[in-house]
Design brief:
The structure is a single chain. The protein is elongated and about 85 Å long. It is mostly helical. It is built from nine helices and two strands; from the N terminus they run E-E-H-H-H-H-H-H-H-H-H. The longest helix has 26 residues. 45% of the residues lie in helices and 4% in strands. It has a two-stranded antiparallel ribbon with strand order 1-2.
């Protein structure tokens, strides 16, 4: 299924739930789970975290500082300046169009054979208009059923994990877990704000130490906290790097 929202009277469709505000009348049960207890409605969306992680990219912020010039100028042409504090301003300013599905293509009736090649997402048919219309419609349905089935299989190969195909300019890379994205983000921010702190201290700051089972400050407890914080930081850095490559959420470690 694709999530739908309205902008200027037009329906936009998204692979995952788009960000909403308190002005949107929607049941809490119809929204994704809160990534943390105090999360705002618009934070219950993978697209919010795409923006948040891109803001952690020093290279992308440098590109913003340079007015969109530099090595990341191509991405900047699409994502624009993310230095502002309001995610919803960025979203409503046009960013939503990066992630929504393009409108469904309309049926075209050619008065003559087209001179340009027909796109791969279309099938060109020659339909006689002198025969029985019911028989013609039955044959059309059979032919189109085969064509649609073939197109569906091709799309599914593009997204084996979910079985759904997105034609968005920037599709979500893999199924997001908002709680995991939030925990890695606050861990990364805690490290940036406390560069000299130990990994265990970062675990205390972020609440990781409290969430980890075992006796506080016990050697085994410390080792588990250290391993979790280290992994979260490694994955957070990968998420930031890959967001700068136009992919999210992707924890694949960048090549050195």
């Amino acid at each position: 299924m694709f999530e739908k929202m309205l902008f200027s009277g037009k329906a936009l469709y998204f692979r995952y739930a788009p960000p909403l505000t308190d002005l949107d009348e929607i049941s809490d049960d119809d929204l994704p789970n809160r990534p943390y207890p105090q999360a705002k409605k618009y934070e219950r969306s993978v697209y919010f975290y795409w923006w948040a992680y891109l803001r952690e990219s020093e290279a992308y912020i440098a590109c913003c500082d340079a007015g969109g010039e530099g090595a990341m100028s191509k991405l900047y042409a699409d994502f624009g300046d993310v230095r502002g504090e309001s995610f919803m301003d960025w979203w409503k300013g046009g960013a939503r169009l990066l992630f929504c599905e393009p409108p469904e293509a309309e049926i075209i009736s050619y008065p003559a054979l087209p001179k340009e090649p027909v796109g791969e997402d279309r099938v060109l048919l020659s339909v006689p208009v002198t025969g029985d219309i019911n028989r013609t419609m039955a044959e059309l349905r059979k032919t189109l059923h085969k064509a649609f089935a073939l197109a569906r299989r091709q799309r599914q190969r593009c997204d084996v994990a979910s079985g759904l195909f997105s034609r968005a300019a920037y599709p979500v890379f893999t199924k997001p877990v908002l709680t995991a994205l939030h925990e890695r983000l606050i861990t990364l921010r805690a490290r940036k704000e406390n560069p000299s702190a130990s990994l265990y201290e970062i675990g205390k700051i972020t609440g990781m130490a409290d969430r980890t089972t075992g006796e506080k400050d016990d050697a085994d407890h410390r080792n588990r906290v250290l391993a979790s914080v280290s992994r979260y930081l490694r994955e957070a850095k990968a998420l930031v790097h890959n967001a700068g490559e136009g992919r999210f959420p992707d924890t694949t470690q960048p090549r050195r």
